[in-house]
Predict the structure.
Amino acid sequence: MSRNSPEREPAAGWEVDAAAAATESLAAEAGEQLGVDAGAAGEPERPEREEQPKAVGRAPSPAPRRAPEEGDARVVRRLPPAPPLVPPRPAARALSQLVKARGRSRGRGSRRSSGSVRPVTVDSSKARTSLDALKISLRQLRWKEFPFGRRLPCDIYWHGVSFRDNDILSGQVNKFPGMTEMVRKITLSRALRIMQNLFPEEYNFYPRSWILPEEFQLFVAQVQTVKDGDPSWRPTFIVKPDSGCQGDGIYLIKDPCDGRLTGTLHNRPAVVQEYIRKPLLIDKLKFDIRLYVLLKSLDPLEIYIAKDGLSRFCTEPYQEPNPQNLHHVFMHLTNYSLNIHSGKFVHSDSASTGSKRTFSSILCRLSSKGVDIKKVWSDIISLVIKTVIALTPELKVFYQSDIPTGRPGPTCFQILGFDIILMKNLKPMLLEVNANPSMRIEHEYELSPGVFENIPSLVDEEVKVAVIRDTLRLMDPLKKKKEIQSQQVEKPFTSKEDINCELAGDSDSPEAHLPSICLKQVFPKYAKQFNYLRLVDRMANLFIRFLGIKGTMKLGPTGFRTFIRNCKLSSSSLSMAAVDILYIDITRRWNSVTLDQRDTGMCLQAFVEAFFFLAQRKFKLQPLHEQVASLIDLCEYHLSLLDEKRLCRRGRPHQRNPPQMNREAQSAAGSSAPQIIGASKLSHS
Ligand code: ADP
């Protein structure tokens, strides 16, 4: 399979000696410590397919506002449509034989054949490029696929691109409303910037970024200030168009006054970001990591991380950026879709070689060099949880707008692709989040000019099928039913994981033939360590409460006034007239920069800015996050009193504990406030 593999010299200190067997035990070892146990490396071997290559010079740039699925456009243009059923490939065949043998020996196996349980139904009609991996997963699970949709409702709808693909009124869909918008480069940068303002230390895993064109002057000024303070500083910046993907339109600059920026400023919104100049290299090559993260539920927040991911390598040895190499894309950009066009791209014939490898094989190799990979994993887990915490507030606003409480609608889950780079000092840095990570398990091979053949990719299939299959296992509606039942029996399961284990371990269980689940829960498992960061989430709850009309995403002036009044925030120094001016001022500014012009009014980010302003006024001389936490406590306290009064008026006396408040919020609330419980960090309910 290594058709164009050049002889590569391993970089000093990095011998290619990582045994595949060691990968397995290593991932297990790292996982045990961090809650990410035995890696996907432990799964049965399956044949390979590949991600869609970028057709340089052939594919048009994606339309600015489309929701791209990585590699999507080119599939439609150049590939024949995916066959309705994937022909069995060697390893899959072996697996299915094993499954059949087991089925025979037990005389049952599938839910259908047991006669008592109906199979889970999945509508795959909109699965697009994830169809092949989905089909394999469904076969392994023995679930029922509806490739052309179904008149009756299905349990699960698998969408290739967005939540908006269909009007679904029940079941579960694998997309959240608003996710595509939330992870666009500009929106993600904004969400992370809010968190960086509140918690600069905790959110230093995202490179300093500016939004163009609106922050161009700020960018120039801030760079100049740092240069004045440190004349030896020679930064490089990477410019990424907001609508781009797969490295499309990306370029590097050394100087904020670079002429190429002028074009970007006039034509396309973009993010300009500090370039990570010292990445960790393997075989002298830069690489990044694609990790799969399952957002299982938004409220309550549930996050799972796949135990294995992919590492994508550059194809030209790395040098720190200088004016001569700035335009060398094969040196600086790790995108598979770009590097596949390099003559030096090596198609992998194992998980630990070539230009695309499993992440576990990288960890294995690092471990053999003495790197503390448990620390690397725990840093990555922390990065993922913090990033999701930054995204959830606005996602909640989208969710209540698309599926308002009380109206029929599906529940949602979503697999996200996190692109992470390890710095030389092993610190993980977030590059971006993909709402539609490519789930293709094959790649195109150019047999002769213009003639392409689809070739399976072992590495992709190994990682991606496990992610899809185990996502489905976690979302299994029948298992959920069993969970509910189990809560009613005498000896309840201690956790959902116990149920998964029980189901997987029980020889009568329909999952007995499957490997252990490759997705590991990290939230709420580590909630205690991260809950103090969820301030914007609590602000979003306040925001949603005052939105008023169902289906809207923006707060009107009356809603904002009611918020101020109900939370008792106006005073002699903050009149209602001043509140109105604050509303108009901030709302107008935000509406001029945000892309979403659907409703008029105050968006969540504008509300957050107004909230910061109010918090700073009320609780002076504290760090911002404490000011904000104090104000949230105060608001929650007054609202809980209001709720109690309302319940009493309706003749339903209701016993509830008002929220715990920190010292500042308590004194601001006056003598009626409850006793001090602890610091605001711990006060999140
Ligand atoms: P796209 O969605 O177009 O792939 P990314 O943000 O993932 O955009 O950037 C493309 C590639 O550029 C990444 O895979 C990575 O190799 C490189 N890259 C992006 N941001 C940085 C950065 N701040 N420092 C160094 N390299 C970066």
